[in-house]
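Chapter review: from sequence to fold.
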Amino acid sequence: MGGHWYAQDGTPVHWQPDGKDTTLRHARKQGLVPGFSGVTSVLAKPGLDVWKENQILEAAFNMPVPIPEREDGDQYPAWKSEVKKLAAERGNKARNRGLEIHNAIEEYIKLGPHPDFPIEWEKYITVVEAEIKDAFTLSLRDLEAETTFACGLGYGGMIDGLARPTTVTGGFSGRTNGILLDWKTKDTEFGDKTRLAYDDHGMQLAAYRYGIGIESAICANVFISPSANVRIHVWDESELVRLFDKFKACLTLWQIDRKYNSAFREINHDH
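The token string follows.
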């Protein structure tokens, strides 16, 4: 996939009518704005790099069969190709698992329990529901799922779970500011002391709450392990302010580097 792109009304335009991935060339012609991951691609991501490195090392360690001998005696190219293929398969399996959990939560938010809901995902729904009720006095069914937006600064996105201010009654610290939730699935188990929340996570939520126009919203990541262990990280307001500044710096760099000013209206620079 070529990346996430949005029209100025917030409609996702990740693909073109001919089925091809949307690219920067399309975006320039159609006035599209990039998604969060596209904007922050200008940043180094050491955590992600370590994850990719580990996938390669584990794939190399677990190579199921030796590479057949080559006539020229050089087995390295074939070995490298097989290791990269195996690492990609492992990474795709983890991503697909995460996507399935995301989709199950989205389906539950939109439709609630129903006879065709896959039983294998019920444990995730049960635990996530209990944790957000405890943290925010909210049910999953109180949320909007997969709400998209485009912001005049020149970026867009899709919010996993959104409780608008008018739908939040009491709840977290008695505030009615609105709540943004982002599901983060992990491919390994985590303990009580495992660090889960990093700048990228908070930066995404800070950008999203500004983009959706609910700038005082509470922002939290909901981390979900393969066994349905769940931990919620609520971001401190001062951190969200810092991280939004960091995101805006990334957006400026992205626009300069791509030679594309994706902003599409006058912005109130007092924000």
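Two observations follow directly from the output. The chain has a mean pLDDT of 87. Residues 4 and 14 are 5 Å apart (CA to CA).
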